[in-house]
Design a protein that fits this description.
single chain; 340 residues; alpha+beta; Aminopeptidase; Nonspecific Lipid-transfer Protein, Chain A; 3 domains; 5-stranded mixed beta sheet; 11 helices; globular
C-alpha cells in the first residue's frame, strides 16, 4: 500500500471509487462534484494492486472563529473499496491528512460521520447537529412564506451579493464558528443544489432577505436524524490561541496526541478576558495534568466540561487546573451546515 496526495490532474481517477462507494449520489451531482469541488480540494489516496483502493478528500473552507478567519478542511468522501476494508487504509489516510494540515497551519478540521464510532479513535468529537431547512415541495415553501407575510422566490445569481452580505451579518452576530459567507460561497452553493434538482428559496420582506428554505423533493428532513458534525484539533497551540477567557487565567498542562507529534508538549496558558488565551512552552515539572488532543477538541467546542474530560482515557487534571480551564470560553455557538 502507498499513501500519497494526488496532483490535480489525478483527481478524476478517484471518480470510479466514489461512484462505487456512494451509489446514492446522482450522476448529475457527481458531475458537479468532479467539475467544481475537485478544482481546489485535496485528495489523499491509498494505492495497491495498480489502482486507487481508498481515498479521503479535504474540501477547503474559510471558517470564522471568534470573528477571526481561519482556513479549515472539511473531510469528505472517505471511502475504501470493499475487498480492501479492515486493513487500516482509512487510518493511514487520516494520519497523512492530519499531519499535512498541521504543516499547513490549520487549527482544526471537521467532518460529517456516517457513524460517530468510526472517527472517535482518530480524535474526533461530536460538537454540532446540523439545522435542517428542507422542504419537499415548492408549494410548501410558498405557503409558509405567505403565512409569514413574506414573498418566496428562487435565488438567482443576481441575488448573491445581497445574500452574502445579509448572511454574513446575521451569522457574525449570532455564532462563534461558521463558514464565511461571500459571493463565491453562494455561487458554488447554487450550482451544488441545482446539480441535484434542488434549489434555494429566499424569503423577502420590505426588500430584505429574512429567511431561506431549500427545496429538495428527495430530502425533506422530516423524521430524519439531524446530521452530526465532528471536529478534531489539528494544531493545539493555534486552537487555544483562538479562545477567549472569562478572567485572569494561569495554568500549565501537558497535551498528548498519538498522530500529530507537534502537539505533544507542555504548555503554560495565561491571559485575561481582554487578551484571550496566550501561550508559552511550559516546564514538565510544573504541569498540573495531562489532556489528550481528542478530549481537548470536545472541551474547546463545548461538548465536554473540564470535569467531563477527566472521564476520558489518558486525561488526568488537578482540581486547580480544572478550575483554570473552566475560565476558557468554549465555542458553543456553532453553525456548520455544509454538505460537501
Amino acid at each position: 500500500m502507498e499513501i500519497r496526495r494526488l496532483n490535480r490532474q489525478e483527481h478524476i481517477n478517484t471518480r470510479r471509487l466514489y461512484e462505487e462507494v456512494f451509489p446514492e449520489d446522482s450522476r448529475s451531482f457527481v458531475d458537479y462534484y468532479y467539475t467544481e469541488k475537485t478544482k481546489d480540494n485535496c485528495i489523499y489516496a491509498a494505492e495497491e494492486d495498480g489502482g486507487i483502493q481508498a481515498m479521503l478528500h479535504l474540501n477547503p473552507y474559510v471558517l470564522m472563529v471568534n470573528k477571526a478567519a481561519k482556513p479549515a478542511d472539511y473531510i469528505v468522501a472517505v471511502a475504501t473499496r470493499e475487498k480492501y476494508r479492515r486493513r487500516g487504509f482509512m487510518a493511514e489516510l487520516m494520519a497523512a491528512a492530519l499531519k499535512s494540515m498541521y504543516k499547513e497551519g490549520k487549527a482544526f478540521t471537521f467532518l460529517m460521520p456516517a457513524a460517530e464510532g468510526i472517527y472517535l479513535p482518530h480524535g474526533f468529537r461530536t460538537v454540532y447537529e446540523q439545522e435542517r431547512k428542507f422542504r419537499g415541495s415548492r408549494e410548501e415553501i410558498l405557503k409558509e412564506a405567505e403565512a409569514r407575510n413574506m414573498e418566496a422566490t428562487p435565488a438567482k445569481e443576481a441575488d448573491v451579493p445581497l445574500l452574502a452580505r445579509t448572511a454574513e451579518r446575521y451569522l457574525s452576530e449570532r455564532y462563534q464558528v461558521y463558514a464565511k459567507r461571500d459571493e463565491k460561497y453562494y455561487i458554488r452553493l447554487l450550482k451544488e443544489l441545482s446539480s441535484d434538482g434542488a434549489g434555494l428559496y429566499l424569503f423577502w420582506k420590505e426588500g430584505e432577505i429574512r429567511d431561506y428554505r431549500i427545496f429538495d423533493a428527495d430530502d425533506t428532513g422530516e423524521g430524519q436524524e439531524r446530521p452530526k458534525i465532528m471536529v478534531r484539533i489539528v494544531d493545539v497551540r493555534r486552537m487555544l490561541m483562538s479562545m477567549g477567557l472569562k478572567g485572569l487565567t494561569a495554568a500549565c498542562l501537558t497535551v498528548t496526541d498519538p498522530v500529530i507529534e507537534g502537539n505533544n508538549r507542555c504548555l503554560t496558558i495565561t491571559g485575561t478576558e481582554y487578551s484571550g488565551v496566550m501561550l508559552m512552552d511550559g516546564r514538565p515539572e510544573n504541569s498540573e495534568g495531562t489532556v489528550t488532543a481528542a478530549a481537548l477538541s470536545g472541551f474547546l467546542f463545548g461538548a465536554l466540561s473540564a470535569e467531563d474530560m477527566c472521564k476520558e482515557e489518558g486525561v488526568s487534571l488537578s482540581g486547580r487546573l480544572i478550575g483554570e480551564l473552566g475560565k476558557i470560553i468554549p465555542l458553543t455557538r456553532i453553525f456548520l451546515n455544509e454538505a460537501v
